[in-house]
C-alpha cells in the first residue's frame, strides 16, 4: 500500500474514517489494551500517561490519567477489570476504567517494571530485573521468582497454572502454586525476550535479540527454530485456536503452522507483503483466523489467513505502528504509533 495518490490514501483510511475514531496524543504509544469486559480501551504512552475511554463512546474523547513519573513500559488487562500498568519509576499500578489509580507495588526508582501478565483466576505477574513477582487478586505478594538474568517477557498459560519467563540462554517455566519453586528450564543459547504459550499449552515460543524466534514443544522439549527474518521481531500472536503463529519482523505477515506436525519442516505462509515495508505489530482475532497487522510506515490492515484477502484499516503516513490489540470479542481493533497517533475501529455487525 503506497501513498502514491490521494485516492489511495482515502481508500486505505476508509474503515478508520467510516467506522472509527482517531486521536493525536503527542507521545510514543507504548501499549494498547482492552479491559476484560471488551468495552473499555486504554493506551499507555511514553510520557507516563494513560488515555482511557469507553470503546463505544471514544469519539467523545479520552480521559487522561497521570500514571508514572517517567515512561509507561507495560500495559495489560487486569484480572477483573481495569488495567495493570508498569513504569520506569518502579511502580506497578492498577488503573480502573474510570481513571482511578491504586499502587499495588513500588519496587524503587531505579527499577523498571518492564513486563506484565494477568490471569482471570486472580494472578498477576510483574517482571522487574531478574525477578518475576507474583501477586494475588488483592495485591498481596505471593512469590518472587528469581532468574539467572534480566527477564525479557512473562506469560501465563491459558489455565493460569504455569508462568513462563524469557531470559538469557532460554526460558523458565514455573508452576505458580507449587510449594517448591523450582523451574523447568528450556535451554537455547541467546537472549530470549517476549514469551507466549500456545493456547493449548503444548508449546512455548520466545522472540530473540537476534532476528529469530525459538520454540519448545513441551511434551518432549523438541526445539523449534524459526529464523530468516530481516529484522528483530517485536510482536507475535497465536490465532484463537492456536493453529497459526503470526509474527512481525519481515516485509509481510509471517505465519507459522502449529498443526500437522508444524512448524518444523513446514514453510511459513506470508500475507500482505510486496511493498518492502517492515511489519512491526501483529494481533490475531480472538475467534476467526484473521490477523491484524501494523507496518513501519503506519499502515494498518487485516488479512484473512485462508484466502489471503487483505482489507486496509488505516493509511500510512502517521509513524511506525507500535501497539495493536483486539477486544475480547473481536468487535473492536485499536492501534497506536510511535508519533502518538491512535485509532479505534468498530468492526461489529451493523
UniProtKB/TrEMBL annotation:
Keywords: Repeat, WD repeat
Repeat found in the keyword field: yes
Protein name, UniProt field: WD40 repeat domain-containing protein
SUPFAM superfamilies hit by this protein: Calcium-dependent phosphotriesterase
Pfam families: WD40
PANTHER family: WD REPEAT DOMAIN 5B, WD40 REPEAT PROTEIN
